[in-house]
């Protein structure tokens, strides 16, 4: 089986001002993680300053969205190349909050993922079912459809990350059970192998949804879980640091 380097990713969502960079400096100072990659995706306004603050540290910085176009008359949009110019190396795409609030479709996520890869960055493509989907027994169908529509045909398995984030577990304190996580992650791996071939063994699959210091180790011991996409708990160095340490030791 391919060796996949684990990834702890923080999604700051629409939180964070310049003084919050202190949390990132504290994280860099207090929580070295030799065995895994660490990524923080702040609001676009902080990407450049955060990457400057981390210049001597392996912690990576990412965006939370980008335009599908590389440049042009698109007021208010930011291209993948611009995120790279600001210091980003990853971009979260298709988060359920954007799928809901900005009506992002699988086709839009796919176009953005292609743009991100073309700019030399790594897309973190998010998928996940609602509570209604799960109650109706269509979790694997929904996740499979999102995956099929959101991952570009030209993707190399090692150059994309997929995050499974059940919508009902985001920001709710309710975590999927390890059986539920394993079922979906195993299915995602199988679908990616069918789609992309053997390189899909190199795709890192992250779980996201109320990951905290207290549940991280159990989640990281689950089949086909290569790390986490962390929201609320990534805002505090002590909490995110504890999650990183659990991943580093897994
Ligand atoms: P929480 O960790 O706050 O539940 O958020 C998860 C998430 O949406 C990360 O992208």
UniProtKB/TrEMBL annotation:
Cite the Gene3D superfamilies for this sequence. Aldolase class I
Q: Write down the chemical reaction(s) this protein catalyses.
A: L-erythrulose 1-phosphate = D-erythrulose 4-phosphate; D-glyceraldehyde 3-phosphate = dihydroxyacetone phosphate
Q: Name one GO cellular component term.
A: cytosol
| Compartments where located | Cytoplasm
Record function comment: Involved in the gluconeogenesis. Catalyzes stereospecifically the conversion of dihydroxyacetone phosphate (DHAP) to D-glyceraldehyde-3-phosphate (G3P).
Family per record: Belongs to the triosephosphate isomerase family.
Task: Spell out the protein name for this chain.
Answer: Triosephosphate isomerase
The organism named in the record is Candidatus Rhodobacter oscarellae
Gene name, per UniProt, is: tpiA
């Amino acid at each position: 089986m391919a060796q996949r380097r684990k990834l702890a990713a923080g999604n700051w969502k629409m939180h964070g001002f310049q003084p919050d960079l202190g949390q990132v400096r504290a994280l860099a100072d207090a929580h070295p993680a030799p065995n895994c990659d660490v990524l923080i995706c702040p609001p676009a306004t902080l990407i450049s300053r955060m990457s400057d603050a981390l210049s001597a540290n392996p912690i990576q910085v990412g965006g939370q969205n980008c335009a599908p176009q590389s440049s042009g008359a698109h007021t208010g949009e930011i291209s993948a190349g611009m995120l790279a110019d600001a210091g980003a190396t990853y971009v979260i795409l298709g988060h359920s909050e954007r799928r809901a609030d900005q009506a992002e479709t699988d086709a839009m996520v796919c176009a953005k993922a292609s743009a991100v890869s073309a700019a030399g960055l790594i897309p973190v493509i998010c998928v996940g079912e609602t509570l209604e989907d799960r109650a109706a027994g269509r979790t694997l169908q929904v996740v499979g459809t999102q995956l099929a529509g959101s991952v570009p045909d030209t993707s190399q398995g090692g150059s994309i990350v997929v995050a499974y984030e059940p919508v009902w577990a985001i920001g709710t304190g309710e975590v999927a059970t390890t059986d539920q996580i394993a079922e979906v992650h195993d299915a995602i791996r199988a679908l990616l192998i069918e789609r992309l071939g053997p390189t899909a063994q190199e795709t890192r699959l992250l779980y996201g949804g109320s990951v905290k210091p207290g549940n991280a180790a159990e989640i990281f011991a689950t089949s086909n879980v290569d790390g986490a996409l962390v929201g609320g708990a990534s805002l505090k160095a002590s909490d995110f640091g504890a999650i990183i340490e659990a991943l580093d030791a897994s």
